[in-house]
Amino acid sequence: MSLSFLLTSLIVIVSPGTGVLYTLAAALSRGSRASVAAAFGCTLGIVPHIAAAMLGLAAVLHTSALAFSALKWLGVLYLLYMAWQALRERGALKVEGKVDARSATKVIVTGFLINILNPKLSIFFLAFLPQFIAADESHPVARMLELSAAFMAMTFAVFVLYGLFAASVRDRIVTRPKAMTWLRRAFAGGFAALGARLALAER
């Protein structure tokens, strides 16, 4: 596995996006356990995109305006829903002292949906992964699986670090109502901005 692949992947993963934003929100509202669950859900949401890239479905999204638009607008609507939820006291940023199994499952599912409803990810993997596979590679599928697994492992690790850092300052924020109000507005604005960016995305 080349150093260029690892460095490029790290830059892509560290860059703030919907997954990072959601992991931070989960950490600040529910603590470290929820941040790990969010990181897991977001990482799991990468799997369908990698599978789509490997099966050629990403090429369909790239060539079919209808398929791309349908998935894109579902993603936009979901991000706007997340923005609305973030503004509500009992929504996405609802402060919870304890995260049970049911709550953790909900966090994982939300993280999964956030990533799976972004058609740009499938096209990204279709264009990104083949660059690091040699033309004379004897087992290209196995190589692609190896690169995909490495990308997912790095994604999970980076998101967990983001989440644990946010969870470490959680107590200083959730005990201050004014801080939580501004935090809800900031995350709502972040989700709305990402939704707008996705709405403007082209194939």
Structure description:
It is a single chain. The protein is mainly alpha-helical and 203 residues long. It has one domain (17-199). Helices cover 79% and strands 0% of the residues. It has 11 helices and no strands. It has helices at 3-14, 18-30, 32-44, 47-55, 57-63, 65-87, 101-116, 119-128, 140-168, 170-174, 177-199. Helix 2 (18-30) packs antiparallel against helix 3 (32-44), helix 3 runs parallel beside helix 7 (101-116) and helix 6 (65-87) packs antiparallel against helix 11. The protein is globular, with a radius of gyration of 18 Å. The protein starts with a helix and ends with a helix. The mean pLDDT is 79.
Task: Summarize it.
The chain has 203 residues and is mainly alpha-helical. The protein has helices spanning 3-14, 18-30, 32-44, 47-55, 57-63, 65-87, 101-116, 119-128, 140-168, 170-174, 177-199. It has one domain.
Helices and strands, in order, run as HHHHHHHHHHH
What percent strand? Answer: under 5%
What is the CA-CA span between the terminal residues? 29 Å
How does the major sheet shape up? Answer: none
| Oligomeric composition of the shown chains | single chain
Query: In the residues, how many domains can be counted?
Result: 1
Structural class: mainly alpha
- Uncertain stretches: none
Question: In one word, what is the shape?
Answer: globular
Average pLDDT rating: 79
Percent range of helical residues: over 70%
Could you tell me the radius of gyration in angstroms?
Answer: 18 Å
